[in-house]
Amino acid sequence: MAFRILHLADLHLDRAFAAMGCQGDLARRRRQGLRDALRRAGTLAKERDCNVICIGGDLYEQERAGADTGRFLADTFASWQPLPVFLAPGNHDALLPQSLYARTEWSGNVHLFTSPTLEPCDLTDGITLWGLAHREPQWQGDPLAASPIDAGGIHLALFHGAELGSRPTDSPIHGPFHAAGIREHGFAAALCGHYHKRRLDTKTGLLYPGSPEPLSFDEPGGRGPAIAIITDSGMVEFEALDVNVWRALTVNAEVGGSASLDSLVDSALESIHTAAATLDPEHTLVRVDLTGDVAAAVSLDLVTVETRLREQTSLAVVRVRDLTRPGIDIEAAATERTARGAFTRTALEAMAGTDDLEESAILEDALRYGLMALSGAEVGLR
Ligand SMILES: [Mn+2]
């Protein structure tokens, strides 16, 4: 019989969600959504005949998690009995003396890895799970530092760490390792946490399930736990489950040519409807990127745009980013017999008189901002 492991990571219980524009009741609903996702994982593990559940760190956020979260976790894991649960603390939920991991009393089916180096635990005949704990949030050790395993059987690793081949440039290096090291060290697979983007790589044995619910606008698409299957012949297969309830997406709204704030809002609404038509608005968070050249006479008041988009879509969150450029007809302005025309001609002459690219760019900005100011538009810094 194949051995099946339900693996999840980066749930981030108790997250604030303020950075996604969630306040008050919505933020509370999102946090409840994280707890629901954990309970759903237990149900899925049973439905899918999994033998064990592994959790690869950042299960909760230490700075925000209180005793109530400890009780929730203890009760949830206890309700999964007799299914074994393996916990490998990460950087947000490091195994500090005051951590929930250390302070909570766990049911007998919970196995907490506590060593900063990989330690073995038998899963079943011939399959061993090796796990470690981040003992402090800033730990930067190599999870695969120990010498290669030479014992027989199938060995799996469970840890929170940063695979260097897929590191987003702004991600701190917590537990750096290379995917190639997984097999070199004798592991059939590494069940990991840290990156919130899903990565199923059966070639190297690397599995990042990704955060089960979206934690930023850069996490679109299906999310949920993954199942690692160890077949009778010792092969490892990964299967990702799309079971997220919340959606976060970025919508590009080309609003160039909008002659008024009303037509700009209408145009953005159309883009949102196209992108989010099939999604449940109450559980959908949308970031709208406004792009295109917008007439200088249109005062782009982001608060007004956001409010109106939210009112007309009933989406949980609408956030607007202004990536537009002021649309100005410079040629027409230069022919005017007004102060505006004189200003334009002076700026164009200055631009024609310089070979310095930097100076030319500054003059062009000056021309655009000057024309916006002269047309009565509010000039915001970009
Ligand atoms: Mn994380």
Produce the secondary structure layout:
Blueprint: E1 3-8, H1 24-47, E2 52-55, H2 67-79, E3 85-87, H3 100-103, E4 110-112, E5 119-124, E6 127-131, E7 154-160, E8 162-163, E9 176-177, H4 180-184, E10 189-193, E11 199-201, E12 206-208, E13 226-230, E14 236-240, E15 247-254, H5 261-276, E16 284-291, E17 293-295, H6 302-313, E18 317-322, E19 325-327, H7 330-334, H8 339-352, H9 357-374
Parallel strand pairs: 1-2, 2-3, 3-4, 6-7, 7-10, 8-9, 10-12, 15-16, 16-18, 17-19
Antiparallel strand pairs: 1-13, 5-6, 11-12, 13-14
Helix pairs in contact: 5-6, 8-9
The chain binds manganese (II) ion.
- CATH homologous superfamily caption of the largest domain: Metallo-dependent phosphatases
Strand content: 15-25%
* Total DSSP E strands: 19
CATH fold naming of the largest domain? Purple Acid Phosphatase, chain A, domain 2
Name the structural class. Answer: alpha/beta
Note the gap between the termini: 61 Å
